[in-house]
Structures are given as C-alpha cells and as structure tokens.
Amino acid sequence: MQRIRKGDDVTIIAGKDKGRRGTVLRVLPNGKLLVQNVNLIKKHQRGNPQTGAQGGIVEREAAIEASNVMLYNPATGKGDRVGYRVLDDGRKVRYFKSNNEVVDA
C-alpha cells in the first residue's frame, strides 16, 4: 500500500514549486509522481499530420520525487504525515498522524 495514490491532493514541500497544491495524476513505478500544474516544463514537440498532432512548444507536467510532497489534510489546511491502521472489518486504511482522521473512506 502506498502513502500517496492517484487522485490524492498533495502539497509540495521542496523544490521550485514549494507551497503549491495539486492533484496526483499518475504514480510512476520509480517513486515519482505527476502532479497537476506542478513542475511544469516546456517540451518542443514535432507535429504529426497523420495523427493530427499540432507541433510547437507544449507545456506539461514533469515527474516530481514522492519525498518532496505531503498528503494535504483539509482539516488542518496543511500537509500531513500518513500512517496505516487496520479497521475492525479487516480493511487496511491510511490515516493522518496529526488528528487520527481516516483518509480512505
């Protein structure tokens, strides 16, 4: 079970985008994440008339290390550490360490 998953709201704690928030678009197998509107780069892309792809300079998200993000806790309004807990019905869920609130409903 991973601490940060696709669809989670995260806050950036290190790097050029420190302090920004975004939603995780993808979790890559090498321990990196793609976060919406964070770590934007400009990619020079060649057009392809067969697929109808437009050429030019495209701005897109680059991967960011998972250690540079924290799960956003809406109750406190800040990034928070995550732990694991097994519920009475046998499910393993994530919870915020600061207020013991369960992340996975």
From TrEMBL:
Query: What's its job?
Result: One of two assembly initiator proteins, it binds directly to the 5'-end of the 23S rRNA, where it nucleates assembly of the 50S subunit. One of the proteins that surrounds the polypeptide exit tunnel on the outside of the subunit.
Family membership: Belongs to the universal ribosomal protein uL24 family.
Give the encoding gene's name.
rplX
What's the domain of life for this entry?
A: Bacteria
Question: What is the protein name stated in its UniProt record?
Answer: Large ribosomal subunit protein uL24
**Oligomer and partners:** Part of the 50S ribosomal subunit.
Q: Where is the KOW domain?
A: 3-30
- Any one GO cellular component localisation term in the record: ribosome
**Is Repeat included in the keywords of this UniProt record?**
no
